């Protein structure tokens, strides 16, 4: 499969970010569940443990090898099923990632807009952009009856790294 980079540079909540859109022929509640329920997330990206009511959960990526360390997702804003703002921090690392998910439904079709900040280092865009195109395409596969395992990271990175780096230069 040949992939096409879909992210765009935007300022989200005052942060330099890459934003992506995906559209689903599904109600907003179903798409919200696909991006917030641990068992649904586990089909395409990872799983969380803990109690979201505490304001944070532990999240582990499931498709990046065993060495991927759990990260803490702090819930900054949660307005089901329309908006979720998270800050991801890996213990022992200096940087954090700000992520925003916004869902809008119209006539049974839901648009998910996902964004992630690039932090203080614009060079991070070279990994962030292709990575989220990859994972969001896995989400689409999982939610449309496809096999997320058929989405090949090699079709995204390093193929689209230059495209995303050029957004921030």
From TrEMBL:
User: Membrane-crossing residues?
Assistant: none
Q: Name one Pfam family in it.
A: AHSA1
By its UniProt entry, which Gene3D superfamilies does this protein fall under?
3.30.530.20
Activator of Hsp90 ATPase homologue 1/2-like C-terminal domain: residues covered:
26-141
Q: Family per UniProt? A: Belongs to the AHA1 family.
This chain's protein is named: SRPBCC family protein
